[in-house]
């Protein structure tokens, strides 16, 4: 069975039932698909390094690399750092995304969600990814970083171009254009840091704790990407699965108290981040498979979410089930520090849509993206 990026779940199911780990040539990695194995790997960062967590699948052309090198890149970056380096760059994120700060952001999220829905409510047809899901999370992370709202659209575009540059094959001219967008994003962040007034926010936490300047900018860029691309994906998959399971959508309209459970069920059932890579630092045995030092693993959070040993009726999308612990936001020291912020945005989105547009329906067939980092509908055309 080949690994199908648009629908990897049959492959995950087979891998869970296969003795030991399954090597996936398409990923050039061993697949960790069972809940208990994934937890064990993620809880042992000394043996399973994050250095290759986001290994590029496409190597940009020299012309594109030259553009990227025009803006210095600093290390370490939180998603690929280990040990003390990881703790140093993660701690300001944890403080900047504390429950208190997330709660203070809820009024902004609520107001923007209502404004965005109101902007297309009279059309009776909308492509939700472009008009809403790719807009709100970027504005929210921009707000948390104190960025001028006029600069946010270009930063959002730069984020998607950064993703394209290392995960989507493109011709050289398109790579260069994407690289220019990415470089422009970092220059905008640089200008923001140099000109801003202190305001005790997420950006201030990072400025105070992360140095030198190039490392600060790289981590700002990282949190900008991670802070909205995954939330965009989760919004899209939440609406998709609710509307594909019509009775679930109608139940949610009748019972808004189920919205938090719907958020958790979406994350478990179809994780936006399908998984991250790890590399072994020493010889180790996982699920009976002996691995040498330097072995590549793909720890599939999404596969763990469908493991029948951890979840009853795992392939069913059911917002009435009692939410169980899942790994859609990672686990261990690298668990997503922005998980609560993402949850709030999806919660507010579902509350707004079910209240304002209870008659929403899918208007066109949906094709899922091939990305394993931001799995979502490519487009989500809705009508009411």
Descriptors for this entry?
Cytochrome p450, single chain, 384 residues, 10 strands, alpha+beta
Distance separating the two termini: 39 Å
| Structural class assignment | alpha+beta
CATH topology (fold) name: Cytochrome p450
Strand content: 5-15%
Strand order of the largest sheet: 1-2-8-5-3
Major sheet size, sense and barrel closure: 5 strands, mixed
CATH class bucket: Mainly Alpha
CATH architecture: Orthogonal Bundle
Based on CA inertia axes, which overall geometry fits?
globular
Number of discrete domains: 1
User: What is the CATH homologous superfamily assignment?
Assistant: Cytochrome P450
Residue windows where pLDDT falls under 50 for at least 5 positions: none
How are helices and strands ordered from N to C? HEEHEHHHEHHHHHHHHEEEEHHEE
The share of residues in helices is 40-55%
The DSSP helix count reads 15
- The number of strands is 10
Average predicted confidence as pLDDT: 95
Radius of gyration, in Å, reads: 20 Å
Walkthrough of the structure:
The protein is of the alpha+beta class and 384 residues long. The protein has a single domain, classed as Cytochrome p450. It is 52% helix and 9% strand. It has helices at 9-17, 35-42, 62-68, 83-96, 99-120, 128-133, 136-145, 152-167, 172-195, 202-209, 213-244, 246-254, 259-269, 301-305, 339-356; strands at 22-24, 29-32, 48-49, 125-127, 275-280, 284-286, 289-291, 296-300, 361-362, 381-383. A hairpin with a 2-residue loop joins strand 6 and strand 7 (289-291). Helix 3 (62-68) runs parallel beside helix 9 (172-195) and helix 8 (152-167) packs across helix 9. The two termini are 39 Å apart. The model has no long low-confidence stretch (mean pLDDT 95).
């Amino acid at each position: 069975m080949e690994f199908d990026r648009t629908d990897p779940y049959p492959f995950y199911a087979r891998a869970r039932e296969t003795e030991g780990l399954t090597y996936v040539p398409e990923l050039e990695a061993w697949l960790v698909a069972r809940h208990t194995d994934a937890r064990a790997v993620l809880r042992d960062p000394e043996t399973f390094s994050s250095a290759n967590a986001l290994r590029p699948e496409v190597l940009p052309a020299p012309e594109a690399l030259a553009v990227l090198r025009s803006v210095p890149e600093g290390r370490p970056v939180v998603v690929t750092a280990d040990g003390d380096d990881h703790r140093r760059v993660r701690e300001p994120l944890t403080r900047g995304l504390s429950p208190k700060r997330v709660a203070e952001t809820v009024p902004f999220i609520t107001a923007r969600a209502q404004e965005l829905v109101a902007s297309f409510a009279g059309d009776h047809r909308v492509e939700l990814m472009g008009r809403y899901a790719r807009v709100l999370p970027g504005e929210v992370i921009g707000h948390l970083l104190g960025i001028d709202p006029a600069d946010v659209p270009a930063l959002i575009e730069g984020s998607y171009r950064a993703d394209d540059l290392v995960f989507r094959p493109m011709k050289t001219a398109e790579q260069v254009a994407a690289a220019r967008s990415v470089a422009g994003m970092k220059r905008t962040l640089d200008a923001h840091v140099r000109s801003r007034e202190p305001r005790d926010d997420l950006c201030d936490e990072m400025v105070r704790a992360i140095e030198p300047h190039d490392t600060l900018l790289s981590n700002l860029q990282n949190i900008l990407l991670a802070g909205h691309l995954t939330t965009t994906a989760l919004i899209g998959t939440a609406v998709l699965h609710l509307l594909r399971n019509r009775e679930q959508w109608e139940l949610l309209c009748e019972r808004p108290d189920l919205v938090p459970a719907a958020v958790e069920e979406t994350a478990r059932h179809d994780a936006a981040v399908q998984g991250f890579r790890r590399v072994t630092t020493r010889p180790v045995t996982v699920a009976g498979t002996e691995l040498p030092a330097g072995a590549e693993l793909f720890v599939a959070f999404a596969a763990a979410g469908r493991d029948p040993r951890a979840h009853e009726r795992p392939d069913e999308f059911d917002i009435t089930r009692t939410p169980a612990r899942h790994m859609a936001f990672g686990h261990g020291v690298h668990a997503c520090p922005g998980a609560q912020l993402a949850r709030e945005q999806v919660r507010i989105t579902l509350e707004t849509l079910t209240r304002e547009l209870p008659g929403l329906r899918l208007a066109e067939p949906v094709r899922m993206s091939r990305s394993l980092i931001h799995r979502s509908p490519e487009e989500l055309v809705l009508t009411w």
